[in-house]
Amino acid sequence: VQLQASGGGSVQPGGSLRLSCVGSGFPSDYFGIGWFRQAPGKEREGVACISSSDGETWYVDSVQGRFTISRDRVKNTVFLEMNGLKPEDTALYYCAMRPGFCVRGGTSSMYDYWGQGTQVTVSS
Question: Alpha helices, DSSP H only, in 57-116?
């Protein structure tokens, strides 16, 4: 399994970014893709996840209404559309895959495969 995350960058508060996670080599059609983030000095936290089978999604409260996770099954790609970005969203963002489905509030230990991080910086 390989995951490739991209799309990070630097934006001003209120700005938008779209992260992409392209996957390959999945052993099954049933899996969950999660986006996590880690800011300096803080623990890695789950931001959102989506199930491949039915598209069920979950968001951490702090991004609810601002971030949208979606999938393109043909392109094996999961997107994280981030709007209304705030300085506290600054972090290294990772995508990860787990067999089965998205787990609401799932921790990083529940995910088996990880992509490299993509940096998101929100500052004025």
Answer: none
User: How far is 89 from 38, CA to CA, in rounded Å?
Assistant: 9
**pLDDT tens by residue, 49-102:** 999 989 999 999 999 999 999 999 899 999 999 999 999 999 999 999 999 999
Token pair of 87 as six digits: 């300085």
Q: Which two tokens stand for residue 83?
A: 């709007």
Q: What is Dmax (Cα atoms) for the chain?
A: 43
Q: DSSP per residue over 16-64, as a string?
A: -EEEEEEEE--SSS-EEEEEEEE-TTS--EEEEEEETTT--EEE-GGGT
